[in-house]
Amino acid sequence: MASRLNPYLSFRDDARQAMEFYKDVFGGTLTMNTFGEFGSPEGADADKIMHSQLEADNGFTLMAADTPAGMEHNPGTNISVSLSGDDAEDLRGYWEKLSDGGTVTVPFEKQMWGDEFGACVDKFGIPWMVNVVQSG
């Protein structure tokens, strides 16, 4: 898999409905995982979307999630740029450069879903997410 760059949208409680709408708009394959599937089965956010991905037939990729309770959600500023793929060396290099001089919001490390992931806001105020997919 080559590395990819795509938008990542954040919603308060309606990521499922939004992504189903975007699937109707663009077509393609939509996958969704809830917080309950990744370690919070009893919590208030259990049925909310932790990660969703739409792969449209034309090559568009759109990712989205619900913002967990207790985290700030600001409509209008609810988009990040996502870098993901399996080229760990390149992606780690991008992470180092993007986070340098910025603010790390999630340290780049192995996460509960098995991938290496980090989030930061670069020195220009742009939020980034970097995910290194771990091969099975």
From TrEMBL:
Pfam families in the cross-refs: Glyoxalase
Location of the Glyoxalase/fosfomycin resistance/dioxygenase domain: 4-129
PANTHER family documented for this protein: PROTEIN YJDN, PROTEIN YJDN-RELATED
Protein name per its UniProtKB record: VOC family protein
Species of provenance: Amycolatopsis melonis
